[in-house]
Amino acid sequence: MTMSPAKAGANRRFVRMIDLADDTAAIAAYEAAHSPGNTPAEVLALQRRHGIVELEIYRLGTRLVMLMEVDATFNPEGLDRETAADPVLIEWQRRMGALQRPLPGHSGWAEMPCIFRQSDHP
């Protein structure tokens, strides 16, 4: 993952995008895999262990948007290392990756920079 570290003492939000295969079966499989009870407990535990406070994925057609809130302990390098060493996490990444189509110029989820924040304005 190529993300900036969280600000010390404050939660930070990341927004990322990726596409799904333009196939109704792939879309259904992706949504089913993310339904409560279907995401492996190891995936959820890993996210929480590495400072991911909340993670939401929204879909419109084949476009997915991920909102990820992290705390000051967020550690993307540790998250990547642990994912690469655990067979359950490797299999999850393989299954989901087979259904996803990265945006042009990206190899996975593309991070979107924030260009407007209402609270920055008087």
TrEMBL record:
InterPro entries: Carb_Metab_Mutarotase (IPR052996), Dimeric_a/b-barrel (IPR011008), Rham/fucose_mutarotase (IPR008000). Transmembrane segments: none annotated. Gene3D superfamilies: 3.30.70.100. Pfam families: rhaM. It comes from the Bacteria. This is L-rhamnose mutarotase.
